[in-house]
């Protein structure tokens, strides 16, 4: 792998409190499992024999495309041999994005892309050049300590987010290259909108008029998870975000849809290697340091 900038990493936790920038080239396939993270991700695609799977939808990017994922979506790249894989990746803390927008919500593109299951952008030529030029400017100042570099980093990030939102809201659905199953899409949307309710295979098969066998087979094919595994992962994501927003472990448990606190706590620790109480304590410690 050739590093043009930054460090390719399989970690899914940010180190910086604002954003992180990577520009990498892989000549051999990289293996990345399904994952989610607590921040927003922007990926500018340059080349590669790659598909991106986001919540069961398989996107086929072209040079200059942009992929957006928010902090609730399960996703992964599928990288195959045959072409050099080059991309720019930007990780953004949601709080930092909110601070840049002032009275305007610069996170709208991430919120809308998740809600509408529409993660791939194919920007118009003018916007595509603008985004790539801004990434080039940001790359120049990312680790610079020259006078004004911090202000420039903030300014370039703000401009990137403005143009990403413009790109998203000016795009047409037919501009996407995506494979999906419409019924699985409906089920995924329903699950995410009803995490607090019962979401057993019996309930879902009855609601969507599918046999349990067919639902199980199609869901696994497109999602890479069983229905139960997916529901648990999404409930854990919801609980973790609630904890990071200031909820107590009991409140996060109630909001996420688990029926039993012991099972919730055990599943949370198995997934994240930390207890819900420890996440709350980390949040309180950071708050005291910043006050």
TrEMBL record:
SMART domains according to UniProt: HTH_ARAC
Ranges of residues in domain HTH araC/xylS-type: 185-282
SUPFAM superfamilies, alphabetized: Homeodomain-like (SSF46689), Regulatory protein AraC (SSF51215)
Keyword annotations: DNA-binding, Transcription, Transcription regulation
One Pfam family matching this protein: HTH_18
Highest taxon above the source species: Bacteria
UniProt cross-references to InterPro entries, sorted A to Z: AraC-bd, AraC_XylS_family_regulators, Homeodomain-like_sf, HTH-like, HTH_AraC, RmlC-like_jellyroll
A GO MF label: DNA-binding transcription factor activity
Name used for this protein in its record: Helix-turn-helix transcriptional regulator
Source organism of this protein record: Caproicibacterium amylolyticum
């Amino acid at each position: 792998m050739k590093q043009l900038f930054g460090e390719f990493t399989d970690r899914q936790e940010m180190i910086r409190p604002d954003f992180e920038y990577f520009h990498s080239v892989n000549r051999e396939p990289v293996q990345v499992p399904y994952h989610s993270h607590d921040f927003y991700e922007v990926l500018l695609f340059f080349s590669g024999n790659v598909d991106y799977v986001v919540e069961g939808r398989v996107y086929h990017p072209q040079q200059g495309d942009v992929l957006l994922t928010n902090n609730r979506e399960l996703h992964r790249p599928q990288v195959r041999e045959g072409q050099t894989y080059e991309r720019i990746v930007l990780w953004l803390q949601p709080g930092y994005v909110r601070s840049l927008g002032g009275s305007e919500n610069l996170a709208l593109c991430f919120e809308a892309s998740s809600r509408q299951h529409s993660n791939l952008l194919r920007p118009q030529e003018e916007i595509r050049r603008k985004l790539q030029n801004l990434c080039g400017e940001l790359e120049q100042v990312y680790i610079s300590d020259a006078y004004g570099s911090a202000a420039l980093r903030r300014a370039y990030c703000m401009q990137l987010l403005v143009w990403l939102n413009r790109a998203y809201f000016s795009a047409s659905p037919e501009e996407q290259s995506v494979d999906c199953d419409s019924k699985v899409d409906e089920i995924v949307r329903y699950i995410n909108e009803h995490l607090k309710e019962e979401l057993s295979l019996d309930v879902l098969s009855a609601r969507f008029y599918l046999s349990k066998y067919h639902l199980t087979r199609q869901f696994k094919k497109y999602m890479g998870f069983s229905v139960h595994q997916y529901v648990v992962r999404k409930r854990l994501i919801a609980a973790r975000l609630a904890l990071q927003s200031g909820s107590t472990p009991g409140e996060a448990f109630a909001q996420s849809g688990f029926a039993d606190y012991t099972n919730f706590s055990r599943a949370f620790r198995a997934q994240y290697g930390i207890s819900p109480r420890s996440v709350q304590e980390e949040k309180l410690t950071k708050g005291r340091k910043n006050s």
